[in-house]
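Example 3.2
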Amino acid sequence: MKNKKLIIGISCLLIISLFATGCKQEIEVKDGSKVAVSVKGGKITATDYYQKIKEQNISLLVDMIDRELFEEKYPTTEEEDTKIESQISQLKENYSDEETLNAILTQYFGVNNEKELEDMLRLEYKRNEAVQDFISENLKDNEIEKYYNEKIHGEVKASHILIIPSVSDDAEEDEINEAEKEAKKTAEEVISKLKKGEDFAKLAKKYSKEEATASKGGDLGYFELDEMVDEFSEAVKELNVNEYTKKPIKTRYGYHIILKTDEKEKPELKDVKKDIKEKITLQKLDSDPTLYYQTLIDIRKENNIKWNDSVLEKKYNELMDKLLETAKNQTTTQ
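Structure, written as tokens:
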């Protein structure tokens, strides 16, 4: 950690007015006139050192810039502390051996010890906050209104009976297909019993394979439609209160028979606007991995970062292009 602090300190002294609120002290580097280190038979000038670190450590400089931008705007919270502690604890549980842990920190995180890992995780946490805020603040009204009109409904209350295909983890494709047919057949038999007037709650207790709700007659309580998988939500939306699905609804969990038991009025836009913006923001980030890096680039531009060294600026642009390209390639391979 001392070495990293030393590098940061020297870098801070050498980088001249990179951003408005940057280093308080400045050192003018000209023609190698400032000797940083004397060596037997020669010397290493500040210019030599500066030229070397700006070629090889642009990511360190980007971290310094982002800390200047975000640490004051996003002060540490209890939620941040809890999340960072949880991440580090999980890592230490997975790699309890100190030597292995240190190797993992160096190889996969590019840090030398736990304190450096914590600093890195805290910076990423604040970057995430900044990115989400920036995207949310720049959403257009028509995007928000479209989501409200299409996705927001009053909370609904429903019960369901879930029939899960019975297969082992190593089942062959024909076994899986057969289990799917059997599950669907059972679901259809349950629907036949409902049509004959049998009680939904009693059938749920007998047939449903979801332990959390079966004992309650399949009752899911109140929920928002977008909390459920699409197939389930679409089915519930089409039902009237006290109506059940006449065909099994297939999702990745199995086959559902759904009974809609209540529906609240749709909330006003002003009451759900904040939640809508959060949901749209997360959807955008999930659907486009390049958006995270592009947003950070836009935030830095908006804060008028001034580059007084063309080599540093070139290295920065190259790093950003590389990050965007890597994220883009991940998208195409998924």
